[in-house]
Amino acid sequence: MGYRSSVEILTEWDIVAARQLGRNEAKEVGFGTVDQARITTAISELARNIYLYAGKGKIEIERISEGGSFGIIIIASDEGPGIPDVRKVMEDGFSTSGGLGAGMPGVKRLMDDFKIETVLGEGTVIKATKWIR
Amino acid sequence: MPQEIERQYKEILRQYVMRQTEQNLYAGQNFSRQLIQKNIAPEEVISIHKAALEEMFPELPMNVWHSFDLLIEMMIRYGLAHAEHQSLLEQQEEIKVEMDLAANVQRTLLKTTVPEVAGLEIGLVSVPARKMNGDYIYFLSDDLKNAGVAVADVIGKGIPAALCMSMIKYGMDSLQDATSDPKKVLDIINRIVEKSVDDDMFISMFYGRYNVEQSVFTYASAGHEPALFYDAQKGEFSELHAKGLLLGVVPNVTYAQHEVKMEYGDFIVMMTDGVTECRTDEGFIEQEIIASLIHSLRDESAQTIVDTVYKELEKMQNFELRDDFTLVIFKKTH
After folding, report:
1. Is the pLDDT of residue B43 over 60?
2. Among A53, A64, B250, B322, whose Cα sits 20 to 30 Å from the Cα of B134?
3. How far is B119 from B11, CA to CA, in rounded Å?
4. What stretch of H or E contains B139?
5. Are B39 and B115 in a shared domain?
6. SS3 state of residue A106
């Protein structure tokens, strides 16, 4: 496991703190401006979902490397209600039509890899990975 | 590829900064078309612009470079919205293809053969307003003595209506007896529908049976549009009313049954509300207009009458069909 740092999400201000952490990490790992903005947007989205639907949780950023490639994983975890229908939240037009923002499909598009684990009543863990091209 | 794009963009930008001509702007716009085709996100475009500018004017103040970072940040969501639109468009295309396939399945599934009965001409036209038809026609005949026709209309149109149709078809298939009384037919179908559909789904149905030996047309209706009877000798139309509740409302319904004797040249026009509720921007097309149109065609074959009526009403409605359109004519020829 690589170097990991985290931000607790309790209030809306923590979203900004999580963004700041993500941007700093992305910059240090060597991502360009556009990818930094993409990673930050993904963190924003994940942190907002924790704040809005789980109440509290955390965003962790892990640096990774493999075969000379470098990247980061965003881990968003909460002990909220869980997602009853994952397929639905992964559908285009589901969250955007309600004005909720880019939603999960947006996060998936911004990153290279996206994994979601959720248990009703126990919480959700989302891992989103991005590599430097 | 990105490097090639950067190079080309830098050249276009250089030209424009030098000379602000329409031609140079046009080149830029054409280039953006390429970028869209290659799925280059808007934030990427700004980043390319920034990089080109940095090379051309490295002495610009820091404030300017910072402002681009803000713009890139803002464009991320535009990029996402664009990508989402693209994917929704693709999905829409898939749904369209699926709908076409479903409509084909429906056509095959609900195919019915127009019976050939001595002394009777049958004309039929049934056109869906959208891809799937919510009107349904089913013919039954036996030993050339009887020709039965069911005209059904699911309230509503499109896919839900179309799905309902298969139920009517299998109900009718189970009868396989053209001598059955129309009121009996409606009773059986009503029980099937009542058991199988939601309370908010209603189906109207008309069932008519022509007996060759007696030249009698017997009919019953479950809340369907009345049929028109054309009396050739009198040269006038009358409505064939029959009381009966829509299908699927309650399990036990006694349908009223009536009959009419047909003479040479007489015909019966059965239809769905897609015909009677034809309307233009000025309002409904009057029933008399439809009747007089049919009257003017009375000496034509049954198929020519239905085809011509459809074409005329389609024209009157500016080729916009608001509801599924079905017209069946039974015409006594000798």
Report:
1. yes
2. B250
3. 82
4. strand B135-142
5. no
6. helix
> Would you state the pLDDT for residue A33?
93
CA gap B209, B259 in Å, rounded = 9
The answer on B130 and B97 residing in a single domain is no
Cβ-contact A106, B84 below 8 angstroms: yes
- Both B190 and B208 in one domain: the answer is yes
Range list of H helices, B38-61: 42-56
Contacts of residue B149, Cβ cutoff 8 Å, sequence gap at least 6 = B122, B137, B138, B139, B140, B207, B208, B209, B270, B328, B330
Q: Considering only alpha carbons, which residue of chain A is nearest residue B45?
A: A34
A115: alpha, beta or left, given left = phi > 0 and alpha = psi -120 to 50? beta
User: If contacts are CB pairs under 8 Å, which of residues 65-104 in chain B contact chain A?
Assistant: 69, 72-73, 76-77, 80-81, 83-84, 87-88, 91
Extents of the domains making up chain A? 4-131
pLDDT tens, position by position, B85-106: 999 999 999 999 998 898 888 8
Q: Give residue-wise pLDDT tens across range B194-245.
A: 888 777 778 999 999 999 999 999 999 999 989 999 999 999 999 998 989 9
Instruction: Show residues of chain A in contact with B73, CB under 8 Å.
Output: 37, 40-41
Chain A interface, mutation test: which of B48, B76, B78, B87, most A Cβ atoms within 10 Å? B76
Tell me which CATH homologous superfamily contains domain A4-131: Histidine kinase-like ATPase, C-terminal domain (3.30.565.10)
Non-local (6+) Cβ contacts of B307 within 8 A are B123, B125
Which of A33, A34, A102 comes nearest B80 by C-beta?
Answer: A102
Number of domains in chain B: 2
The residue in chain B having the minimum alpha-carbon distance to the alpha carbon of residue A101 is B77
The residue range of the domain holding B177 is 110-332
The CATH number covering residue B65 comes to 1.10.1240.30
Check B88 against A33: CB less than 8 A apart.
Answer: no
Q: How far apart (Å, rounded) are the C-alpha atoms in residues A92 and B84?
A: 6
A37 and B73 within 8 Å at the Cβ level: the answer is yes
In what helix (H) or strand (E) does residue B290 lie, and over which residues does it extend? helix B287-296
For residue B148, which phi and psi values (nearest 5 degrees)? -110, 150
Among residues B77, B102, B127, which one ends one of the domains?
Answer: B102
pLDDT in tens, A87-111: 888 888 776 555 455 689 999 999 9
Q: Are the C-beta atoms of residues B255 and B221 closer than 8 Å to each other? A: yes
Residues B54, B128, single domain; the answer is no
